[in-house]
Amino acid sequence: MIRHTVIFNLKHAHGSLQEKGFLRDARIALETIPGVTKFEQLRQVSPKNEYRFGFSMEFADKKAYDAYDRHPKHTAFVQDRWNREVEKFLEIDYEKL
Description:
Layout: E1 2-10, H1 17-30, E2 37-43, E3 53-59, H2 62-70, H3 72-85, E4 86-95
Antiparallel strand pairs: 1-3, 1-4, 2-3
Helix pairs in contact: 1-3
Domain Stress-response A/B barrel: 2-94
Organism: Devosia nanyangense
InterPro entries: Dabb, Dimeric_a/b-barrel
């Protein structure tokens, strides 16, 4: 199993229609890609880091993750929305020990 996580900040003002639209559209685009399980959108609450949001999802194996990474819905979302609207991010992919 691979758990794919990303924490990020948006360029949009907190609580704005643009922020809400990005989060809505991300869910629609990403959670429906084959192989994605346990998709979650998260709000960061700790004062220990500066990131505001997180996405987390799981894949059965590396093959499923690689298929997601190349999937046209994922690549289009990254190109059309993520690259334009995300200010900064940190991506972490985990496997169980």
